[in-house]
Amino acid sequence: MLDTLPPWVLNAFLFACGAALGSFLNVVIYRLPRAESVVRPPSHCFSCGARLGLLDLFPVLSYLLLRGRCRHCGARFSPRYAIVEAACGLLAVAAANLYGLTLFALAVFVACLCLVAILYIDLDYMIIPDEFVVIIAALGLGLDVWRLATGHGNPVSFADPMTIGAPDTYRVVLLPGSLVGLLLGAGLLLFLGWVFEKIMGKPSMGGGDVKLAGAMGAWLGPGYLFLAYFLLAVVAGAVVGIVAMALRVRGRRDYIPFGPMLAAAGIGVLLWGDHLGPWVLRRFTG
C-alpha cells in the first residue's frame, strides 16, 4: 500500500515516523545511562517540571515553533533534541530509498537508531550500553542466517588439511560470515587497544568499543566492507583527536571516546557501503 503513494508523500510519512522514533530515542539517550525508566515519568520540563503535551513534543516542528524554549516557563531546550529527531527522520527516508520498503531496510534503520543512541551516550557518559550492541549484533547474525538458509549467503570457507593417513586431502570447513566478522571486529579493536595502551601507558580502548566493533563485524562480515568501516572510524578518531588538542578542548593524555566515531562510520557503511567502501579502500591502497 505504501509503495503506491507519490514519492514525496511516502518520504514525508517516513520522515515523520523516523522523527517520532527519534523523539523517543532522546528519552532513551537521557534516561538509560541513569538507570531510569524510559516510560515513567512522562516527558516534562527540567526547569519548571511541567508535563509536556503534544504541542511541545511534535518532532522537530515543536522545537522550531517554540524557538527551543519551554512553553510554560521559557527555559531553553538543547538543540540536540531536534537534531536527533531530524537525523532519525532522514535515516528512515534514506534506508527506504536505498533498500526499498523491505525488512532489510527496517533492520538497517533499527541498527542506525542504535548507533545514533550510542554516539550521544558515549559522548555524554563515555559508556556504550550493551542493549544497543546486542540489538546490532543480533540483527547482523539473524540476517546472515536468513541469507544462508535461503541460499543467498556466502559462508567463509577454510581448507583444513587432514594429516592423518591422507596428507594431501583437505576438508572444507564452512562458517557463517557474521560469526567470523564478529570475532574479527572484536579481536581487532582489542588488539588496537592493547597497542595504544603500550604506547600511551594507559588504557585507551573501552570494552564497549570492542563489543561495538564485534557487532558491526557481525553485520559487515570479514571482507572489505569491515575494513573500510574500520579505516573510516580510525581516521575520524585521529582527526577529531588532533582538532580537539589543537583547540585545547582535550589534552594529549585526555581520553576521547571512540564510540562516536565507530557509530558514525557504522551508519555511513550500513547505508552507503557499496559506494563508500570502494572509495575508502582506493584512498588507502592507491
Structure notes:
The chain is mainly α and 286 residues long. The protein is 65% helix and 5% strand. The protein is built from 10 helices and 2 strands. A two-stranded antiparallel ribbon has the order 1-2. α5 crosses α10. The protein is globular, with a radius of gyration of 22 Å. The relative contact order is 0.10. The mean pLDDT is 87.
Task: List the keywords.
2 strands, two-stranded antiparallel sheet, globular, mainly alpha, 286 residues
Brief overview:
Helices cover 65% and strands 5% of the residues. The chain is mostly helical. A hairpin with a 6-residue loop joins strand 1 (156-162) and strand 2 (169-175).
Q: What's the arrangement of secondary structure elements?
A:
Layout: H1 7-31, H2 54-57, H3 61-65, H4 80-99, H5 103-125, H6 130-149, E1 156-162, E2 169-175, H7 177-200, H8 207-220, H9 224-246, H10 259-285
Antiparallel strand pairs: 1-2
What structural class should be given to the helix and strand makeup? mainly alpha
Give helix and strand order, one letter per element, not per position. HHHHHHEEHHHH
Apparent shape? globular
Widest beta sheet: strand line-up: 1-2
Radius of gyration: 22 Å
Distance between the termini: 47 Å
* Helix content class: 55-70%
Residues in β-strands, percent? under 5%
Give the low-confidence spans.
none
Count of DSSP helices? 10
Question: Roughly what is the average pLDDT, rounded to an integer?
Answer: 87
